[in-house]
Design brief:
This protein has 129 residues and is mostly beta strands. The chain is 11% helix and 57% strand. Strands 1, 2, 5, 6, 7, 8 and 9 form a seven-stranded antiparallel beta sheet that branches. Strands 3-4 form a two-stranded antiparallel ribbon.
């Protein structure tokens, strides 16, 4: 059986750079506060969603020195400024840079992994690919 899969990485703009995302991970958990009742049962007294964590891993084409990317990511992390990120037809708002790693292979392409935490919502764009 021959399967022809045409794969094109999603483009994600972060900190003025376009990351060609080859791997994407989203994670959100719920936190619970529990108390034991007089009868020994557990009761949930409060619950809420934690911030959404997004990790984008891929390549960044760079005609400039790789130090420019490192500087911009570090500046973005230090500023604490929130921003929005588009991935496919989804828009994540209230995003902040949590961590990043870069590796320069010396061929004009930088391997990068960027993790964001998002305190805002997720919206779906109509008509997006």
């Amino acid at each position: 059986m021959n399967v022809n899969i045409s794969y094109r990485p999603q483009e994600v703009d972060i900190g003025g750079y376009t990351l060609f995302c080859e791997k994407f991970r989203a994670e959100r958990t719920r936190t619970l506060a529990e108390k034991t009742t007089v009868s020994g049962e557990n009761a949930v007294t409060n619950s809420g969603r934690k911030s959404l964590r997004l990790t984008f891993t891929g390549r960044i084409a760079s005609d400039e020195q790789p130090t420019g990317l490192l500087y911009e990511m570090d500046t973005l992390m230090a500023s604490g400024t929130g921003f929005s990120v588009e991935y496919g037809d989804l828009v994540f708002s209230g995003c902040h840079l949590l961590s990043f790693s870069t590796e320069d292979g010396g061929e004009g392409v930088i391997q990068a992994s960027v993790t964001l935490y998002c305190t805002g919502g997720i919206e779906r764009q109509e008509g997006a690919e």
